[in-house]
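Instructor's aside before we start: the two examples that follow are unrelated to each other. I chose them only because their records fit on one page, so don't look for a connection. First example below.
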Amino acid sequence: MKQAAGHAVGTKTATKEERGDQLYETPIEATRTVLALESFSEIIKEPFVGKAAILRPLEAAGYDVQIADLVDRGITTQHGELQQVGDFLLSDPGDSVGTDIFTNPPYGDLANKCLAHALRVHKPRKMAALLNLNFMCGFDDPDRRFVMDENPPSRVYVFTRRLPMMHRDGWDGNKASSQMNTAFFIWERNEDGSYGSGDGIWTTIRVDWKEFEHADPLPPGEGGHRSPMVFSEAAEDFTRTTPRKSVDEHVDEEISRAILWLKEMQPFDSAILRRGIGVRDSVAVALIEAMSANGLIEKNEDGLWFPNGAGLHLTASANAAEAVKAWRAERTVAA
């Protein structure tokens, strides 16, 4: 009987090879419940984006999301920004340190490592993680002790009704109801950089996701722009399925769209340009450098960029797209 149940769930009896990259898509019921109860900064990281099961509800609730995953599935944000690809355990936040995190990390020992890395290195102001309720227990793993004893969560939302089944990606066996009790753990950073109340006590809140099926999300709180994370290269990149392009190559591809976008006639910085044409922050910065170096934009008194006469002349041509191509053929764009 137990073996049959394990097979039906698709997790209990799976070998390490069968589990692969441990993609178990998050039920929207879980994300919807937490968003109705918790507000996060406007910018959020989802470092285990999978197939966008958490990303899409976050965007629908008004958040901008930085996305990454170990596996390149070609996922893009609502602004057209492609996911970053890399091992989160090798990631460095750069100037995105402190940005809120909302995720469903890999299970098992990797959950300990990933959450400890998040708190130690990325230092989110607030972090929400969907975990097995048993995550409260355990004492052998130093990373588990770090995130539950030394830097405990502030609140734990326990789902009184088990979530719809999270079958392993690619599972083609029998479908079954969930055999796992789950909870969303919420960490909040204190002013001194620590997490938790200091006495190892957190608030446990019982919630029934059925009661939040039609609940509105709380609005995003205070937030600002942050650059993407930086990933150290692994010894062998065996997960990427598309060629890695350099920033110069991205600039070559996007410069025409960036110049045509100048017709919007709005002051901009890299964040505004990034959203306007749907590119990564590093590409937006390089595009601004290219257009500035070629005399198409200049800064106004507020420190924002604005198209100058040359830039407006180029975009106002009768056939702007052809004019940009001709301009590109004659000029060397610095990136």
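Example two begins here.
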Amino acid sequence: PNYAFVFDQNGTCIFHPEAEKNGKNIFDFTSLNPSDTLITNKSGFNETVALSEYLQLDVIRFVKPLKLEGINWYVCINFPKMIADENVNKVKQHASAIYLITTFILVFIFYLFNRANRKEYLEKEALVADKNNLLLENEKVHKENALIQLQQLKEQINPHFLFNTLNSLYMLIDVDAPKAKKFTLNLSKIYRYLIDPPQENIVPLSDELSFIEQYIFLQMTRFNQELQFSIEIEDDSGLIKNIPYLSLQICIENVIKHNLATIASPLKSRIIVKKDAVFIINNLQKKTSTEQSNNFGLKYLQSIYNYYSKKDFKTFEENGEFICILPLIE
């Protein structure tokens, strides 16, 4: 009929022979009081006589601190009083043995608990490592796709662009020799920029603006008064941030490719630099028929922005204008 239960310093029952009492407050369903946990004698435990809520008879209760690492618990060992009266010393001897056995069992339970927690922690660490590896692989795939699309884009730009610019240069040589020299200089700078792409596929906005100014000069030479371009800096802080390589050229080329441009109705394009994005805006003068496009340029830009986790790259039409928003990358 002897039994024991364990509770913490707040009275919450950790272990009781009646499982339904686990988790409840022992001060509510037993005769124990918080003062019973104050050990003031040299024996190291308190001894009281009380009516057992479990056996429904008088028992001698021994309450003793059960201190584990970082935890203050108490063990309460109960003996029927009729047995205790026969041999109190023997009972006390048994109480010490039960205390030691209970302590050993609890330490063993803690060992198993900590071992299970350690195993779970290691499994979670392994899952996190696998997830990180998958994210790295995903980023690597995005980057490789961007490089492939960039190469396809360059292969698409170079022959077409070179043919048109050389044809314009040929016509300029006899008409305006000084302008032809400037044209040739800008053309060489453009190709130097094209043959040396950055490893991460992003460049400072200031570099991309210098390149697009040279590109626009060549286009203005070809189309004369049919095109109008402007670059507006609304926030200087945007100039030190990054932008996808060739992004401005891709946008301007699309503007020229898909819209009509005449002297009577020129095609107007604005490049506006803001704090966190560049806006490219042009008036809509759609061609009735355009060359078939495989959208390499836009796919390349989307791939770069995906790689850098930028979600606000967008193109849309509004109030007779076509607007492209290129987010800046820190």
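The chain has a mean pLDDT of 81.
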